[in-house]
Amino acid sequence: MKISELSHHVPVSLGDRSYHVLIQPHILPQIGRVLQDVGLSGQVAIVTNSIVNELYGRVVLRSLKRCGFSPFLVVIPDGEKAKSMFWLSKILDELVAQRLERQEVVLALGGGVVGDVAGFAASVYLRGVPFVQVPTTLVAQVDSSVGGKTGVNHPIGKNLIGAFYQPRVVVVDPQALQSLPKREWVAGLAEVIKYGMIADPNFFEYLEQHVDGLRDQAEDVIPTVIRRCCEIKAEVVGGDERESGRRRILNYGHTVGHALETWGRYRTWIHGEAVGIGMVQEAAMAQFLGMCTKEIVERQRDLIQDVGLPIAMPSMTFMDLWGAMQHDKKVVKGQINCVVPTTIGKVQVVPLVRQRIRQWFTASQSSRGKRLEPVPQAVSRPCLSKKK
Predict the structure, then answer these.
(1) Cβ distance 214 to 226 under 8 Å?
(2) 104, 184, 231, 243: which one is catalytic?
(3) Which one of 20, 158, 228, 233 is the catalytic residue?
(4) What pLDDT is attached to residue 7?
(5) Is 127 a catalytic residue?
(6) Which of 149, 168, 194, 227 is catalytic?
(7) pLDDT(121) > 70
(8) How far apart are CA 73 and CA 46, in angstroms?
(9) Is residue 295 annotated as a catalytic residue, yes or no?
(10) Across-strand partners of 71?
């Protein structure tokens, strides 16, 4: 399948590491042709989890075999627990056992966890083999599959071990989103809203006007949303591949969000829920610091709440939060840096002063009183089934 034949493709311009994000409904059965078109051949290690494998594993295997590839499956557990050194080692063991060669392929079929750990495995096996992203969740399709961030978690902090390693191609099939549980879908909308907040006020307004379509996965809304998010990320990554400058804006919501995930031992919230809370709290922090208006805080909070995401902090102490943020990968010389909004479509990276953040935290906790929003129960993932 020629890239020029596709209705939507977004280029990620990185010199000799450039690639395309292909966005096309029902493209999964054509995955073999896509890999041929980008010059790949031989064995393909399909890294996936048991749930995604049940839904899409056969389709991908069949397509690759039809096009002359020799695919094999590497199945890891579902959920954040698979984003670990243990499961990275298991993937590498299988690549060694199958004698995957340097020009052969690691293909990530799944969400952000699968993409991150498979990409990291591809980056270190034989000092780097070709890597393909086939994201099947909203978070992965609009965010984590693009840009080359790979890695695993450490018990002390999220994403502390990893590498920048760009894929050869990203293949997005919006139809795969139809099999997501409702909670996973809604969680992914946090990353979508993030893109409007950091770079495009018109896109943010579009999201405000299409809340029902976002909640209900309207077919006339979702392709537009995926394409615009990928365009924004491609533009940011193309100008700052290794997060030395502007790319840091993509971490909006993630300083508090990652701290909450770590504090909750990766069991209380799924990633998008934590990021949604993080954006609400980081905007409130910005208002407290005099960097944005109450109107900005309220517009963002209302949109995040309207799509069904949680917005409130759990019952935790300031030192719980500050301590968890200290282990963030964005800490430089002991200084916590945070992305905060100044208006819709524009954010700024600022160092956090402990005493001022303590004052904000105390004021925000007092204003909530006893009306705490319930914390989500530990994640239980129902068996996925395609919508009829």
Answers:
(1) no
(2) 243
(3) 233
(4) 57
(5) yes
(6) 149
(7) yes
(8) 5
(9) no
(10) 44
Answering whether pTM is above 0.85, one says yes
Cα–Cα dist 146/257, whole Å: 20
CATH, domain 182-236+249-367, list 3.20.20.190, 1.20.1090.10, 3.30.2130.10, 1.10.275.10: 1.20.1090.10
d(CA 149, CA 247): 11
**Looking at 254, 261, 301, 330, which residue is catalytic?**
254
- Please compute, for residue 382, the number of CA atoms within 13 A of its CA located in the half-sphere on the CB side: 9
- Whether the Cβ atoms of residue 135 and residue 118 lie closer than 8 Å to each other: no
Quick one: CA dihedral 314, 360, 259, 234, positive or negative?
positive
Residues of the chain with CATH 3.40.50.1970: 3-178
| Annotated catalytic residue, options 83, 251, 261, 282 | 251
Nearest-angstrom CA–CA distance, 283 and 190: 14
Compute the CA torsion angle 87, 74, 234, 69 (nearest 10 deg): 150
Residue carrying structure tokens 């191609």: 169
Catalytic residue among 83, 194, 271, 301: 271
Residue 210 a catalytic site member:
no
Indicate where the chain has its CATH 1.20.1090.10 domain(s).
Answer: 182-236+249-367
Q: What is the pLDDT of residues 110-119, one digit of tens each?
A: 999 999 999 9
What percent of the chain has a predicted confidence (pLDDT) above 70? Answer: 93
Q: Does domain 3-178 have CATH number 3.40.50.1970?
A: yes
> For the chain, what's the residue count?
388
Neighbours of 53 (CB within 10 A): 21
- The answer to whether the CB of 88 falls within 8 A of the CB of 106 is no
Concerning whether 9 is annotated as a catalytic residue, the answer is no
| Paired tokens of 374 | 């319930």
